[in-house]
Specification:
Oligomer: single chain
Shape: globular
Distance between the termini: 56 Å
Largest sheet: 2 strands, antiparallel
Order of helices and strands: HHHEEHHHHHHHHHHHHHHHHHH
Number of strands: 2
Radius of gyration: 23 Å
């Protein structure tokens, strides 16, 4: 069964169904859009359940030739890296649609765009033909631009234009690099052109060509992440986007950039990756410190979380270009965690904005007295984002710092300050918004979170705790795929990956040690 094709097509079918609803039946738009977002989640969970954790190769593969003369094919597959990006995508879209019940202006168009956007994102994470990958990469741009420009806040026109211009520049570099790589692959295969990722792995480049192609891909992905200094579009886009747009933008769209680095830059251009690892890691560390420092002084709570994303994505870039098993594995885990924690924070900000119509921190104060449930969930999400032990953010950041220290100790020490700064900007924002007396009389009559709102947040809370307490199932599936990338880098270059135990092995060791101690104590008591 072509489960990956079904997964990609399902949201598109949902978009068609919603689009065909009669114009006067507006009450059907929200429930049907929500219902149509559930089957992709079920398909993603099916893939997760049947994914073989011990197999480092691509799984659930599909291959259909589309244009033979141009080497274009419908080639889909999933490995440990893309697996969790697919599941995260399939989870966040129904949550975001569920949180969009208040959208009444052109609701049908809004929901159609959301479902088309989901198809595009899933296609990015599953495509192994670079022509098709680029097509999905561009499909994502259009609905996100429209979501910001049509349903955004006061400065939505500026923010959406800035978003599309930055992304278009990156796309130009990406397209040129993909075409050049396809031509080179075709030449070595004796055909006009070929865009199959697997065939590209055997292509030999000159060092200059490899470096140029790496930079072309890297510019596109650095803008998408966004990596400092390409980050300036993100705070505006986040601040002006509707709540669901911010959740999807932070949760999965930014991950398209870090996924691209892992899937293509490190794998296709190993020597260039080694040569440019330190400069890119430096940019990641600058992003960590800069994003956190600027977040501290933000007067807008949504803009604060936007800058926190710049900081967190810097950690992911650092882990990626540390070129260690722990660094790369931690990067994937932090990609998942950031999607969960930042998604929760943007949902929470949207929920209170619907009540108060302000995001200014100065307009709040004492909110915990009025909305205690809301305050508790916000504090939990802030702790998770700051990397509190026992929650998912800690696992990702700690693993990255371990892996990065093995190869980049000085940069890692500097990056560690980002953890401290994160606690400062999140807890200081919490103090100003939630503690003390109620400073604004307009806050006194606010209703706390209802059952529907808590239900929307519940899956994120459960996963944040679950991954934080027991991350082994994630590492078991991620690490084999990460090691394939590092094995290729070692085989194609003179770089030696620092030796250290797998994270999943360490979890096993700790568990077995605890069990042995427990058994020993029981024996002594007997």
């Amino acid at each position: 069964m072509p489960v990956l094709s079904i997964l990609i097509v399902l949201p598109l079918v949902g978009a068609i169904v919603v689009g065909l609803l009669p114009r006067h039946r507006t009450e059907l738009v929200y429930p049907i859009a929500l219902a149509m977002s559930i089957p992709p989640l079920a398909a993603a969970l099916h893939i997760l359940w049947y994914f073989n954790a011990g197999d480092a190769s691509f799984q659930f593969g599909e291959h259909i030739v589309l244009v033979e003369s141009f080497g274009i094919s419908w080639t889909l597959a999933v490995d440990g890296i893309s697996l969790f990006m697919v599941v995260l995508t399939a989870l966040l879209f129904p949550i975001s649609i569920a949180a969009s019940h208040s959208i009444t202006d052109r609701a049908k168009t809004y929901m159609v765009l959301m479902l088309i956007l989901e198809t595009g994102v899933l296609g990015v994470f599953l495509s192994l033909d670079l022509f098709v990958f680029f097509a999905f990469f561009e499909i994502v741009l259009i609905p996100m631009y429209l979501l910001i420009s049509m349903w955004g806040s006061e400065n939505r026109a500026y923010a959406s234009l800035k978003f599309v211009l930055f992304t278009a520049v990156g796309s130009a570099f990406l397209l040129a690099s993909i075409v050049a790589l396809g031509v080179l692959t075709g030449e070595q295969l004796g055909t006009l052109v070929n865009f199959d990722f697997r065939n590209m792995l055997s292509v030999e480049f000159s060092s200059t060509t490899e470096l140029a192609l790496f930079v072309g891909f890297a510019i596109a992905f650095a803008i998408k992440i966004p990596l400092f200094p390409f980050h300036t579009w993100l705070p505006d886009a986040h601040t002006e986007a509707p709540t669901a747009g911010s959740v999807i933008l932070a949760g999965v769209l930014l991950k398209m950039g870090t996924y691209g680095f892992l899937r293509f830059n490190l794998t296709l251009f190993p020597q260039a990756a080694v040569d440019l690892a330190i400069p890119l890691a430096i940019l990641g560390v600058i992003g960590i410190v800069y994003g956190a420092a600027v977040a501290i002084v933000q007067p807008d709570i949504k803009r604060l979380i936007a800058y926190s994303s710049v900081s967190h994505m810097g950690f992911i870039v650092l882990g990626t270009f540390a070129l260690t098993t722990q660094g790369l594995s931690g990067s994937v885990v932090l990609m998942i965690s950031h999607g969960l924690t930042t998604g929760a924070l943007f949902l929470l900000i949207g929920m209170v904005y619907e009540r108060t119509h302000t995001r200014k921190i100065a307009d709040y104060g004492g909110l915990a007295k009025v909305m205690p449930v809301y305050a508790g969930i916000f504090l939990f999400s802030a702790f998770a984002s700051a990397g509190l032990p026992g929650l998912s953010g800690f696992i990702g950041e700690f693993t990255i710092l371990i892996g990065a220290y093995l190869s980049l100790p000085v940069l890692t020490i500097i990056a560690g300050s980002g953890v401290i700064l994160a606690a400062i900007y999140l807890l200081w924002a919490y103090e100003r918004v939630f503690t003390g007396p109620v400073t604004n009389s307009k806050l006194e009559g606010l209703k706390d979170l209802g059952f529907r709102e808590v239900a929307i947040l519940a899956p994120l809370i459960v996963l944040i705790i679950g991954i934080g307490v027991y991350p082994k199932p994630v590492f078991d599936r991620v690490e084999p795929s990460v090691e394939i990338i590092l094995d290729r880098i070692e085989a194609e270059t003179e770089f030696e990956v620092p030796e250290f135990a797998r994270v999943s092995d360490l979890v096993d060791i700790d568990y077995e040690a605890e069990r042995e101690v427990s058994d020993h104590d029981d024996g002594e008591e007997g």
